[in-house]
């Protein structure tokens, strides 16, 4: 969809500022729909992934894992589809190095070496890809996710944490480089985007491994707590192995608030669409368990406004959020809260 036929919506002569924080496959879906609805979108993307092509590249050349960043760039790009398809192409060769790698991941890794880090690399690539909006890595260096479990044990690394299938008590991030013991920080542009936003959206994405790794970066988390923006949480449709087994929607919000040390979530988007029995392909989506149970009383006790609707999209035996419907709710909230929170 081109700029000329997008839904044009403005707040006092400007586009609504929407910051989306997270990672994983759901983030690009929401961002693409927000772009089509004329949001001034900023994506703040996790840099703590250690799986797939991203993880292999990070192990080889010690750069921030590029997979989530690659998908977000494509979602916000105005380049022709063929060019984007090439950027997204994943090698099927049996070559020991290239097999399974996406071309875009290799380009991001190369630019990270050419520039002063992942942040400047992504800004350069955003210009090259005609990105409508902003794509900000949550930190300028690779981070490692750490978890403490309810049984008192600890593990490091996203893959290790989820594979343990234990109940997570809390998570935090450290710099992956063992020689750099300084506390991870977000660059100033990330903090400024959060402070200037009309709405800040958490998710959709894995609670402990896609959303919280960003919020555990101290100055980023502080910005989320201090901003005047409406904080919206897009609750997951399904629970996940090793993360949110047996979680209700209220459990998700409670964990977010506990990690940030105060009630931060203003509004929760909750799916009420029913997933058909035996629809989900559990072999293809092996981390997914069953639908998140609703606890509307619990959400209200946490001080949340609840927006519930059929946000469900079924595709190829997978369960996803309907990007257009979710983006419409986010845009409506941006307009509703603007006057009361900013006095404009």
Q: Overview of this structure, please?
A:
The protein has a seven-stranded parallel sheet with strand order 3-2-1-7-8-10-12, with helices on both faces. Strands 5-4-6 form a three-stranded antiparallel sheet. It has a two-stranded antiparallel sheet with strand order 9-11. The two termini are 31 Å apart. It has two domains: 8-48 and 138-342, Rossmann fold; 50-132, no CATH class. The longest helix has 20 residues, at 323-342. It has helices at 26-36, 52-61, 67-76, 81-88, 103-114, 118-128, 158-163, 188-196, 207-215, 218-226, 249-260, 296-301, 323-342; strands at 17-22, 40-45, 134-137, 143-149, 154-156, 168-175, 199-202, 230-234, 238-240, 267-271, 288-291, 305-309, 312-315, 318-321. It is globular, with a radius of gyration of 19 Å. It is 39% helix and 20% strand. By secondary structure, it is an alpha/beta fold. Mean pLDDT is 88; it is low at 1-5 and 52-61. The protein contains 13 helices and 14 strands.
